[in-house]
Structures are given as C-alpha cells and as structure tokens.
Amino acid sequence: MSDGTDLMQRVATIITEVSATVIEPRMFDLEDGEVHVKSPGELVTVADVEAERLLTKRLSGIFQHTPVVGEEACDANPSLLDALGGERAWLVDPLDGTSNFVAGSADWAVMVALVQHGMTASSWIWQPSQRRMYMAERGAGAMCDDRPLHLDATAAEASGLTGRVHTRFLDDLMNDTISRNRKHFGEVLEGRGSAGIEYPSLAEQEQDFIVWWRTLPWDHAPGVLLAEEAGATVRRLDGSHYQPSQTTTGLLAAADDETWALARLIFD
After folding, report:
1. Same domain? 235 vs 197
2. Which of 34, 63, 71, 81 is the most buried (most CB within 10 A)?
3. Is residue 211 one of the residues assigned to a domain?
4. Model confidence pLDDT, tens digit, residues 82-120
C-alpha cells in the first residue's frame, strides 16, 4: 500500500473493534424490538444504529471538521449526502446485509470509505464471519489482509462467464430481458444481498461480473474502489464512470473491459 498505511491500519482497527463490540455479539441474539422495518423489504437493527454511532464518533477523531455520512443518519436526513461532493467525507455502512444478519447468514460486512473531492480515495470492507479485511487505496492497489489482489483475464465468450444480477429493483421488462438472455452465459445467479460480500468475491475472481440497479453510495463506494484497484472494470450501464455522489441507477462490475462488454449484453 502507499504512505497512507498508518491511516489504513488505524481505520481497519476501528472497524474491527466496533464490529466486535456492538455487532458480532448480537449475531443470533437479537431481542424483540431490536429489529425494525425501515422500508418495504429493508430491515434495520439496534446493531446497525449503535455501530454507525460508534464508527461516526471514532472516525471523527481522525480528521477535524470531516463529516461522516452514515446510512442510518442519511435515512433521517438525506441532505447529509451533499457532503460527498465536498473536499473530504467519511462514508459508513455499519452493517451491509442486515437482512442476512437477521436471518443468521454469514453474508454481511462492515464498510467504510474516505471520499475526497467526489471520488473514493480509500476503502475498507470487513467480513467478520470470514475474519477478512479488504482494503484499497486509489492508485495503490487492493489487499485482502496482507495479500495483494490482482485479477486475471477471464473467458472471451459469454458462455464461459459466471455472474450475479440483483433483480429486486428491476422493472418487469428488464427482468424479462435478463431471463431471456441468461441462457447465453455460463451461469447467472441472484445477488447475495450484500455488496460487502459481492465486490470482494469479484476481486477474488470467484465470479466474473455483478449487476446492480439501485446504487446507494454506502453500498457501492467501498467495493467499487476495491474492484477497480484489483483490475476490474466498473461502469454505469451507459459506460460512464461511477461516482459516490451520484445515485444514478444501473451499475455493472466485471473482471476486465472485455468481460464488461460481454456482460452488458444481458440487457440487450
């Protein structure tokens, strides 16, 4: 990693400590009244809220006057998102994959990103169940713990590709198109309900592409940087670059440019 190693390790320590303190002890031990429906199909737990509060407090101690944009805080005050277009801001997803966490699945993560001048500069994805910390710095690479991540070229034909499509927010026409085209690919599965699981899986070359429709910044800024620094291509469906401050729909992450172009055909 770059000269920012001290920062990277400091934030990683904060994340793992917060996870161990307020999230992990509640795995399989949520009480009545500690899980709520935030919106249709969206859950929030006391672990989400307390973890975000503690992460906000501890991250605020690193840089003075740097706002922290948290998922749960933005739910109450969407104007906090404006900070992502400023000089510097922290972005926090305290528990990515809350529904999985509530169901007892290991597919959840804690994610943090540092956004500077509208671009993700650094990111952290902690997978407690796997005890793996993924980190990335713009221009300095991606790591899983102490292991560098480098993607190799993938199949040159769609029939050799494996990917996942998060279909939940797609309209009927798009879902029909994907259902019709999936036969041209090696395997197309439904998403796992956690970007903090999906992006590392791509960076580890366990799958070739991932498609999302809804692109909230706390879900995607950390993972996009990780994937790109590992060598992946991540673009909007129109080919434009991803920016955390934009909530435009549609995002495709793929192992390389050629794979991205092949995976894009699932919408045609």
Report:
1. yes
2. 71
3. yes
4. 999 999 999 999 999 999 999 999 999 999 999 999 999
Cα–Cα distance measured from residue 72 to residue 74, given in angstroms and rounded to the nearest whole number: 5
CA of 40: how far to CAs of 22, 43, 90, 99, 218, in Å? 25, 8, 27, 12, 19
The contacts of residue 120 (CB under 8 Å, 6+ apart) are 91, 113, 114, 138, 221, 222, 224, 225, 244
Q: What's the rounded Cα separation, in Å, for the pair 91 and 161?
A: 32
Task: Please give the helix or strand (H or E) that residue 68 lies within, else none.
Answer: strand 68-70
Give the E-state strand segments of 77-230 in sequence order: 88-96, 109-116, 119-127, 132-137, 141-144, 147-148, 162-165, 187-190, 209-212
For 200-255, what is each residue's pLDDT tens digit? 999 999 999 999 999 999 999 999 999 999 999 999 999 999 999 988 899 999 99
> Is 39 within a domain?
yes
Q: Which residues constitute the domain of residue 231?
A: 158-267
* Domain shared by 203 and 245, yes or no: yes
Judgement on whether residues 180 and 134 belong to the same structural domain of the protein:
no
- The pLDDT of residue 31 is 86
**Residue 144 within a domain:** yes
CA distances from 128 to 49, 101, 246, 247 (A): 18, 11, 29, 28
Burial class (CB in 10 A: 0-12, 13-18, 19+), 219: buried
